[in-house]
Amino acid sequence: MSADRVLYDWTPDVRSYAVRLGLSLMGVECRMQAVDMDLPAPHHADGLLAGECPPVLECAGVRLTRPGTILHYIARQPDVARAWLDPAHEWAILNWLDFGVSALDTLASARGAALATAMPVPPATGALDAVLRRMEDHMAVRAMDGHDWFAAPAASIADVMLFVVFALSADVGVERDTCPALRRWARGLRALPGFAVMPGVPDYA
Amino acid sequence: MERWHSVSVLSDIRPGEVAGVRIDGHEVVLWREDTPAASLHAWEDRCPHRGMRLSFGFVRGDAMGCLYHGWQFGAAGRCRLIPAHPQVRVPASIHVRAYGVREHAGLAWVNMEGTDGFPDHATHWPDDVQPVRSVHVRRGATQLRQAIGLEAVDGMAWRGSVGLAVHEPVAGQAMLHVVCARSGEPAPTPVALSHWASRLRDAVESGNPTATIMGELA
Ligand code: FES
Q1: What are chain B's domains?
Q2: How far is A42 from chain B (nearest CA, A)?
Q3: Which residues does chain A have within 8 Å of residue B166's beta carbon, measured at their own beta carbons?
Q4: Is the pLDDT of residue A82 over 90?
Q5: Angstrom distance (rounded) from CA A139 to CA B5
Q6: Residues of B in contact with A140 (CB under 8 A)
Q7: ipTM of the complex model
Q8: Sheet strands side by side (includes B107-111)
Q9: Of A19, A60, B26, B147, which shows the fewest CB atoms inside 10 Å?
């Protein structure tokens, strides 16, 4: 089933990492087509359309370019465990997934700007702070209710997306002792089978 | 009390867990043994081998292992195993600096200067206490203490059954630790207290008055 599924993947891109991590955790095979967006446009990769930016998933006639939609699509595949998009908690999962995608868009542009100019990555911005606060407040209460994950009894695609947000916050200088609830949650995700690290982002918290 | 810093609610440091915390900018690793005794330790967060942070490491029974090359440290911070040279008797000079640590009133207290001087008045705090949560506040400890009416020498402020403590991980930032005594007056639920702490944090950070929020506890 992997043969007809292609992911256009740009290794250092955070949204591409979110999709790779999701594929790996959900145990889905996919042909990877490496893209280098640092090269001039004609050399990005064969098959990438003008103006497109990874991640792009091409599969059975659909072409998806948004990381949240790609994870949603993968979680719906028949051979993927239902827990990743648990029907009983689907709306909560999709809500937190969307929250994570917006946060990642914000982070990616800040990070992209910093990398492009070879400047030091800027310190935690107000926007990222607000995002992490909401996540920390939510997981503190979830833990009190005996839950380990953001939106469902088991890890879901929301946790995947939000993990990338949290992992990157270390990169912009957010210390782990300021978000104890997220630290515990992230450890749980890191311990799942299929967990994969992001190049350049330390694998600890 | 000033030398004893409340660094974490106890629910955030369960058996087998490791947590890096900072006290006035000093990095401290807090870890709990994965043994029946489940003793709590607070050490300098620095491996004597190559200086990496021990808080990235792991607990193995009653020892703390460094993530990088697996050196293991036991009671009082002494190195007891170097995996690359398992047959070597490790000299006692190889050790991590251990700090004073106490578990009291639902909190972990650390003294970087020694183990003595845990204040007498702390013995009057309730014993049967439920840890609620530690909340990060982007304001200095002095400002946060003022907002909750806590004198630094007191260590904790009690409002009814709710106990509050503050420490400063680094200048200009504070952690607010919230606990709740199980006995005594009817108390807010942990979830309600968690939301309360978030609102207090937001008020302190935006410079708004906190008297009304504090008044909810009385
Ligand atoms: S740095 Fe800790 S074992 Fe090498």
Answers
A1: 4-100 (2.102.10.10), 123-215 (no CATH)
A2: 42
A3: none
A4: yes
A5: 25
A6: 133, 135, 194
A7: 0.93
A8: B4-9, B107-111, B100-104
A9: A60
Could you tell me the end-to-end alpha-carbon distance of chain A, in angstroms, rounded to an integer?
35
Q: Which DSSP symbol is given to B183?
A: S
A residues 141..200 contacting B (CB < 8 A): 141, 144-145, 175-181, 183-184
Fold classification of A2-80 is Glutaredoxin (3.40.30)
Nearest CA to ligand 1 atom 3: B69
Q: How far apart are CA A9 and CA B92, in angstroms?
A: 51
Between residues A112 and B83, the one the model is more confident about? B83
The single residue listed with the structure tokens 């967990």 is A195
The tokens 């089978």 sit on which residue? A193
CATH code reported for the domain at A85-190 = 1.20.1050.10
- pTM for this structure? 0.92
Measure CB to CB from residue A180 to each of B12, B56, B194 and give the nearest one: B12
Question: Which amino acids bring their CB within 6 angstroms of ligand 1?
Answer: B 47, 49-50, 52, 66, 68-71
Task: Quickly state the pLDDT bin for B127 (edges 50, 70, 90).
Answer: confident
